[in-house]
Amino acid sequence: MIRIFITNLVFIMALMPAISNATDIKALNPIQLLKVKSKHFKEPITYNVTLPASYNEVNSKDTKYFVIFDLHPRSQPYLSGLQDWLSHNGGWPWLETIVITPADYNPEFAKLFDQIVSEPNNHTMLDYFESDLLSAIDEKYRTNGFRIYSGFMGNGALGLYALLNRPNLFNAYIISSPSIADDFGAITTDAKNKLAKLDDKMRFLYLATGNHRYEQGNLPAFDLFEKSLKMSASPMLDWQVHRNNKNNYMSQPIMSIINGIEALFDDIHTDLNADSQVSKQGAQAIIDHYENLSNKKYGFDISAEGSLKTLAKSLMANAPQQGLAIYLKTAKLYPDSAYALSALAKAYANIGNLNKAVKYQTIAVEKSKDMVDYHQNMHQQYLDELKLKLQQNSK
After folding, report:
1. 255-276 exposure pattern, b = at least 16 Cβ within 10 A, e = fewer
2. Is the pLDDT of residue 363 over 70?
3. What is the pLDDT of residue 301?
4. Parallel/antiparallel/unpaired status of strands 97-102 and 143-152
5. ∠ CA(118), CA(114), CA(261), 5° rounding?
6. What does the alpha-carbon distance between residue 196 and residue 257 come to, in Å, rounded to a whole number?
7. Would you call 68 helix, strand, or coil by DSSP?
């Protein structure tokens, strides 16, 4: 009992700075109002723009952010709350994102939405997104060009409609229980042909539904859409279909956001295994893979460092010179990375070249000076260990 008490006390004390900094929720997730004018509506439509915690910090003034958009006004609290929680620990697993939601329901917008039922070839709604809404967001806020669409039921159906008819609007779609019965927006009719004609940019689709009575009427159309994905989806579309039958109907969008975000950003946060299909082809294949992700999916550089080091480490036991060559290549590609240099130092230490190990770990210590104390101390500690071994070997 005493041990449990002491453990909990230490845990609480460790959290005290975070707790004191997290009491003002509005400061963590500041909301601004954005009024968007359009020729399609008599009055501007107002949106809540929830900014990530770091947006107004001095050291983040040049940072650009992802955007997630959801048409349901009530999605704002859970999207902003989940975004803050899942990004506050170094942007993992959700990189910091601006959350865009309508401030209220708008009858003019609803009328335009209903028009899709009777006139699926009338793309006025998509024109509004492209020419007015999304451009207004990009003009006012520091966005990085990567947009995520989140939608539940009817709004989910609209997301699939946008994917088929204007795929350039969003890079990723997280769709829950879409209301696509009766061929809404000609989605099931057009899916086979239009999925095959997506452009050369990588798109992501996380599509989920359950078996609740509110969802059952849409399941036949859902099955048809999944069939079209399997038969004709472009290789540039990274898609997943899930049936979350264990979750409540109203839980679906929450579960989809969490699981969809983790799947979407997995290639940023998770290194390739050494025995993965890409890594088996060698270091250059890994570099090419991440260049493809950078250019075709995200639009900014995604580091191959972790995956290169994973492959190099796997080779050190049986092919140390091959492993060392990859560590050298990694350090050359990422010369400002303290960890790339430290990994190279460890590789030299493993093959007995302590002089080279000290050389590169010394540079690693220098490069770590802009990092938090924990990382600086760790790099310095390893350098001290290497110097001590070198000194002992010289005696």
Report:
1. bbbbbbbbbbbebbeebbeeeb
2. yes
3. 94
4. unpaired
5. 115
6. 26
7. strand
CATH number of the domain bearing residue 380: 1.25.40.10
CA angle 247, 251, 254 (to 5 degrees): 120
- Rounded CA gap, 242 and 222, in Å? 11
Residues 256 and 303 in one domain: no
Number of structural domains in the chain: 2
Q: Which residue segment(s) compose the domain that 176 sits in?
A: 26-269
Residue 117, amino acid: V
Angstrom distance (rounded) from CA 251 to CA 332: 47
Q: Order of strands, edge to edge, in the sheet holding 45-50?
A: 31-36, 45-50, 97-102, 65-70, 143-152, 172-176, 203-209, 237-243
**Would the CA dihedral through 137, 140, 146, 150 be positive or negative?**
negative
* Closest by Cα among 64, 232, 38, 16 to 134: 38
Indicate the pTM of the whole model.
Answer: 0.90
Separation of alpha carbons 5 and 22, rounded Å: 24
pLDDT at 282: 98
What gap in Å lies between CA 189 and CA 183, rounded to an integer? Answer: 7
Flag whether 34 is in a domain.
yes
Per-residue pLDDT tens for 9-28?
333 334 444 444 545 666 78
- Amino acid letter, 206: Y
318 plus 207 within the same structural domain: no
Q: Give the domain CATH number at 225.
A: 3.40.50.1820
List, for residues 284-343, the tens digit of each pLDDT value. Answer: 999 999 999 999 999 999 999 999 999 999 999 999 999 999 999 999 999 999 999 999
> Under 8 Å CB-to-CB from 198, ≥6 apart: which residues?
167, 233, 234, 236, 237
Residue whose structure tokens are 């760790």:
378
Rounded to the nearest angstrom, the gap between the alpha carbon of residue 353 and the centroid of all alpha carbons in its chain is 40
State the amino acid at position 254 in one-letter form.
I
Sole residue written with tokens 């025995």: 275
Contacts of 378 by beta carbon, 8 Å cutoff, 6+ apart: none
Asked whether residue 336 is domain-assigned, the answer is: yes
The more confidently predicted of residues 57 and 132 is 132
